[in-house]
Give the backbone structure.
Amino acid sequence: MSAESRRIYEKPVLLRHQAGLLNKFGKLPGLRLMEDLDGVPLKELAAQFGSPLYLLSESTLRRKVQQFRRAFESRYPRVRLGWSYKTNYLSAVCRIMHQEGSWAEVVSGHEFRLARDLGVPAARIIYNGPHKDDASLREAIRGGTRIHLDHLEEIPRLEALVREAGLPEGQSRLPVALRINMQLDANHWDRFGFNLESGRAHEAARRLSESAELELAGLHTHIGTYVDNVDNYRRAAGRLVELAVWVRRFTGARIRWWDMGGGFATRNTLHWAYQSGEVTCPSLQKYAEAICPVLATLPLESGEELPELFFETGRALVDESMHLLLSVVSERRLNDGSRALVVDGGVNLLSSTAWYRYDILPVQNPGTQILEDTTLLGNLCMQIDVLRKGVPLPSLRPGDLLVVRHIGAYNLSQSTQFIHSRPAVVLVDAQGGRHLVREAETPAYWRELDRLPDHLQDTGPRG
Ligand SMILES: Cc1ncc(COP(=O)(O)O)c(C=O)c1O
């Protein structure tokens, strides 16, 4: 028998179609679709801009920032938001954030440059991070950026740069903040800043009080990410108040700003969570209620104002405003008989899929209500390229569209070119206008920085 005529044996499998479990109201979850973004049909966007495609909703982003500001500004007098650039530094996202009144929060020379190029004044930048380069620090010093110190070695280095770069007119010392880390629960982020419990934070405050160039004026903490226990923020705020009191008493320095970092949870569901993020995610009001009244207990002298209060919230502001549109490439059965769909984007476009059980919905109704738990496989030719397991989906055909929802934080900034290039990003504005805000990458763009040395110029013998 020839190899062609021999057919591969496929083990028959009996599959129970899972129409979904009854919820507590005795109803089936049913088929959910996402057909449009702010009124613009997703089918049209895919036809116009291709697939895969990142989508950005301008209204959702603006609404989130406005909700944030209302929650905090109604509870504390001088609240400032510093947009955490690394969460998503698409120019359109940063620009919307700045139009909504946010400063920039950057953690590298590259991000500092980006903020300056987007027109953010140096004095409206918060500069965090464990590795800041000299060129950006010089510009930050002269421009009045809020520089937050991460480790002891930064103190003499910054002092030397201040002597060299000179301070803005009228300033005798550069006001800086200390990043503080503290033990709040088992998940202690201890690799950034000065530890509170060990006394490192106090040591650094004393060291700054002896500095001729620097002055301690701010306290910063970023206690983690996706922190859905608001009590941790309450306790962190309390510890910053205690530290500010200690600093005043033992060094004479007055804290003029504090920064509670980012870290608020989103409504996305973590893989290991029992309940949906829709249920467990605290409201912005809950966070504000935990933090603001505690910070307001700082004892003040007459005529003194409460310190400015900064936040560097990332994921909680941007997650819901972006989605990833994908097309089905093929359908297959895995060895255990379960269904899998291969789609035209991989984990290189969706790094946070390692954390989140993303909500993934079909765009069009395939004409059936029968859902089956489906594994979504990416297009990377790698066994580990799994976007999600157990997505309840109807039967879909090649070319059908799917949306991975609420992916605005970290996915785009951490995306890589790998096997396939990165897709375009389209912004839908409040009037339903469509704008290409990042072009899809081309093969020429991939190779733009490659160089072939002389001895590799020759294409060499072939065959
Ligand atoms: C210093 C700092 N600020 C802000 C953020 C933003 O955090 P999130 O996206 O959890 O709000 C991060 C992220 O880890 C960070 O390291």
